[in-house]
Amino acid sequence: MTEALKLQSHDDPLVKARKRQIFLAACRVLARKSFHQATVKEMALEAGLAAGSIYVYLQSKDDILLLLAESMIAELLRPLSRGVRRPQPRSPLPRPQAAISRRP
Prior knowledge:
Order of helices and strands: HHHHHH
Number of helices: 6
Shape: elongated
CATH class: Mainly Alpha
Radius of gyration: 25 Å
Number of domains: 1
Distance between the termini: 87 Å
Strand content: under 5%
CATH superfamily: Homeodomain-like
Oligomer: single chain
Structural class: mainly alpha
């Protein structure tokens, strides 16, 4: 690995963009095959990357599972980041006496 790649941080916009590209490609591959049947090579090619270049951004195939889990957790937490909204109180139900007095 070159020094330039070693110095890239996880916050680097290029690294984030590549990981997203790999993540989306992995989702497409995993829509067709199970995780165990899918290969890293397939995911890399689906992302438009050379087969081995995926390892610049991920250490192993298991890291793709981590990306999927992080995405799912972020999706679940998104409503919380906007603030939990409490349900508005409902209007009171009609009083039983009013219902009884309307009988024929």
